[in-house]
Design goal:
Blueprint: H1 2-25, H2 33-42, E1 56-60, H3 61-65, H4 72-83, H5 85-93, H6 95-98, H7 103-115, H8 125-128, H9 130-137, H10 142-149, E2 152-160, H11 161-171, E3 176-180, E4 182-185, E5 188-193, E6 210-213, E7 225-228, H12 231-234, H13 242-247, H14 267-293, H15 296-305, E8 309-314, E9 326-329, H16 336-344, E10 349-352, H17 357-362, E11 366-369, H18 374-386, E12 391-393, E13 404-405, E14 419-427, H19 443-448, E15 454-459, H20 465-470, H21 475-490, E16 493-494, H22 499-506, H23 514-523
Parallel strand pairs: 1-2, 1-6, 2-3, 6-7, 8-15, 9-12, 9-14, 10-11, 10-12, 13-16
Antiparallel strand pairs: 4-5, 14-15
Helix pairs in contact: 4-5, 4-7, 9-11, 14-15
Keywords: Membrane, Transferase, Transmembrane, Transmembrane helix
Membrane topology: Multi-pass membrane protein
Main location: membrane
Length: 524
């Protein structure tokens, strides 16, 4: 009898503890009403000075900035993108345990699993991967409110600084970020976070006016006014539509981002991904063999039967010259020339720039590597066109996932009497088929591993580049004209950004393969 009483009391105590902690540790946590009321009674305004004559708003990232208080999905992104698939699987398996811990303990465990053993100087997910997902999870009214109020902003986060600081300062122009540092040993993250030190986070910064949060923090006691965001209120927040993320709804638009994950890895979505992987491997091999071994008249319908969605908007008009035709397209994935070839239903030659030798060897169409020398590249492409082969060129030099076109290299305008612009668009549901810092030889396989990869090909009217050059237009003007036509067809914005800009931001290098750098040194 005594044992039954003990067990009943034990389970009752455990149940009450679980219920009290669950809002603090689940993916949609919020503090209880009594705790909020107690915190508000303890608040005492300490500082009333403003900075530069403007008010300072202290915003909790998880509670006042993002629509969800969850941090699991962002740690999962770090585990998968900066770590490995087994690391991500371990974090997913620990999710039930995280739901039985306090919020602070859960974040400590997630940080440990996600960061331990990762080299500090090579960690770029905070700038290259996470901002895209943070922007998409922000409430749509946030940027408008701050722009109208002209407030200075300090953001407070329970995530490590290395995860959140790049996004807040580069895309939202937040002046101060209050977050904890990760401990480093011998150049590697240990996974442990530094202890909170209160004012040590914000030396020289006065907190004066407001704080918008959904959970208590040590900075609350230094604010004059507190606005608590409750769960019911957050559920009414509207997400930022994806086009606005890229089109400049925030101080700095999102143009480049890296990583393989095309979805926010919530626990359910991550579980679905791991359940899909055993089917994805044989499926991508089947799709690859179909396009490698079979003619287009057979491979395209078979590919559609496996879930690939292809759409041809318009075929090109007949060419006027007797030689090969030059097709100029924007660059979405490494498979662009193959899709152009499939749409034409005939073989083409694709020029490559800093492409993996593995990708070249496995390509179902002929490739011609550029030498990164203008005169030599002109001769090589001229020979291909002279012998009657069709040539596909991607003058951007690198891929861009967002609705932007990078600067077009003008060399193609000097090669043929006319060029055919080709507007390409690609959509994925699970994995991106491009990367700036990962293994490029795996790009086509990641694209083919998606359940329903989609491509759209549209051939635009031919542009008489030869006549334009003879009329006195420069090759740069012709290249900008072709870029504008493709951008108008796709609804993309044209930019002057280059391959170097992309790789310096995402990978910390100029995007030139090591073998090219060695050749350049040998020549000098």
């Amino acid at each position: 009898m005594a044992s039954k009483t003990f067990l009943s009391k034990f389970f009752l105590s455990f149940y009450r503890s679980l219920r009290s902690n669950w809002p603090l540790l689940s993916l949609h946590r919020s503090s209880t009403k009594d705790h909020h009321r107690q915190q508000q009674q303890q608040l005492k305004p300490r500082l009333s000075d403003s900075i530069g004559g403007k008010s300072l708003v202290v915003v909790g990232v998880e509670g006042g900035l993002l629509r969800s208080s969850s941090t699991f999905c962002y740690f999962m992104l770090v585990a998968l993108e900066a770590g490995s698939i087994p690391r991500g699987l371990l974090l997913l398996l620990l999710y039930p345990l995280l739901c039985c811990l306090t919020r602070e303990a859960a974040i400590q465990v997630m940080a440990l699993v996600s960061f331990v053993g990762i080299k500090e100087e090579k960690f770029r997910a905070g700038r290259a991967v996470l901002p895209k997902f943070f922007l998409e999870e922000m409430r749509s009214e946030w940027s408008e409110v701050l722009d109208e109020a002209k407030l200075k902003v300090m953001c407070v986060s329970q995530m490590p600084r290395v995860m959140i600081e790049g996004f807040l300062k580069e895309y939202l122009e937040v002046e101060t970020v209050v977050a904890r540092e990760l401990k480093v040993f011998a150049g590697y993250y240990t996974g442990f976070m530094e202890e909170e030190e209160g004012a040590g986070y914000h030396d020289g910064v006065s907190l004066s006016e407001k704080m918008i949060m959904a959970a208590p923090h040590h900075l609350l006691s230094q604010c004059k006014e507190l606005q608590l965001v409750r769960g019911a209120e957050k559920r009414k927040w509207r997400p930022v539509p994806p086009p606005r993320v890229a089109a400049g709804a925030f101080p700095n638009p999102l143009v480049f981002h890296d990583g393989r994950m095309a979805f926010l890895p919530t626990p359910s979505a991550t579980l679905a991904m791991f359940l899909w992987l055993p089917f994805a491997l044989p499926l991508l091999l089947l799709r690859f063999l179909i396009f490698l071994c079979l003619p287009y008249c057979i491979s395209v319908p078979l590919g559609a039967a496996t879930g690939m969605i292809n759409r041809l908007v318009r075929l090109p008009s007949a060419g006027s010259s007797g030689g090969g035709r030059l097709y100029v397209c924007n660059h979405r994935t490494l498979l662009d020339p193959i899709y152009v070839s499939g749409a034409l239903n005939r073989a083409v030659v694709a020029v490559t720039y800093s492409v993996s030798p593995v990708s070249e060897a496995l390509s179902p169409i002929k490739t011609a590597r550029l030498a990164r020398d203008k005169e030599e590249d002109r001769r090589r492409m001229g020979r291909i066109l002279g012998r009657g082969d069709d040539l596909v060129v991607c003058p951007e030099g690198t891929t861009c996932r967002e609705p932007y076109l990078l600067r077009f290299s003008p060399l193609f305008a000097e090669l043929a009497e006319e060029v055919v612009p080709v507007a390409l668009e690609a959509w994925v549901t699970m994995f991106y088929g491009t990367t700036a810092s990962g293994f490029k030889c795996l790009d086509p396989f990641y694209f083919l591993a998606n359940p329903w990869p989609q491509y759209e090909v549209e051939f635009l009217p031919a542009v008489a580049t030869g006549a334009m050059v003879r009329e006195g237009r420069s090759s740069c003007e012709v290249a900008n004209l072709v870029q504008g036509q493709i951008g108008a067809a796709l609804g993309f914005r044209c930019t002057a950004l280059t391959r170097k800009d992309k790789y310096m931001m995402l990978a910390g290098n100029d995007g030139v393969a090591v073998r090219h750098q060695k050749k350049k040194l040998q020549r000098s």
